[in-house]
Amino acid sequence: MSQPPTKSGTIPFKIPKYSVPCVTYYKIFGGLACGAPPVVIVHGSPGAGHEYLLSFADLWTRHGLPVVFYDQIGCGSSTRLPQTAGDGEFWRESLFIDELDNLLDHLDLRGGFHLLGQSWGGMLVGAYAARRPRGLRRVVIASGLASWELSIKGIEMRTGEMDEATREVPRRCEEEGDLDSEAYKEAVMAFSKRFVCRDDPLPELLLPALKNLGEDTNVYGTMIGPSIHIPTGSLLGWTSIPALSQITAPTLVYNGEYDTSHDIAQVPYFEGIPKVRWVTFANAGHMCHVEREVREKVLKTVGEFLRQGGE
């Protein structure tokens, strides 16, 4: 992705029962009036910001689909809310659903749009699509998770694929509460290099996300916990599975062969969504949209699927 955005700005976002003025930052590639349904990109983590997904801006140059990125509330260039740290009742799915609705209405996209969500963004997009929002044409759930319980099981299964020494270090450190040791950091890094992003060195597009998460742990820490290996946050118990049959939009589900979003967390999407296609990219991790070996395959697969949605 090298082209500059066509437009960027902020959208006022009023949070129910919360008096602080807030804004959602957005960035658009292409012309919303071109006649093709725009693709709204929903980022993951939560708290990573939109930049690590900018490879999808190529959907405009290659497929003529305008692309809308935004930073979810609490991170990136949107309003930060440090006073809500640890407030699991505040940081819930409903907050992000309200923000997405607000974005779509402000940009006047109800005439037709696609949704692509990655990781936590995929979880959110799946839940949102089940509400059958007006104007939704097609859905892409990229390395998403049908439930948090299956996410935890998948992480445990991936951890079991590591050698015994690497598995033992984080387990011991977590039991002892020693998450700042070099041994723990090295073990987590080894896991990440195998299952999160398999490129070495890391693609530059991922660096802003790491910066965002390092500078402000509020949203991630509250919703996830200290790490994906210690899931103690407000997403515990979250599931989209009962509502998946309500998704009427054609849906593409994809993950990587070595993805932290394990196949077991994709099966409910495949079994529950009426019009669904599932693709697993070989030799890919959780960030396959930026990994050198598979990036082009991901963009081609997503672009061709969305173009089937018509003008």
UniProtKB/TrEMBL annotation:
Domain AB hydrolase-1 span(s) in chain numbering: 37-291
Swiss-Prot/TrEMBL GO biological process terms: proteolysis
Sorted UniProt keywords: Hydrolase
One Pfam family this sequence matches: Abhydrolase_1
GO-annotated molecular function: peptidase activity
Family to which this protein belongs: Belongs to the peptidase S33 family.
Stated name of the protein: AB hydrolase-1 domain-containing protein
Organism classification: Eukaryota, Fungi, Dikarya, Ascomycota, Pezizomycotina
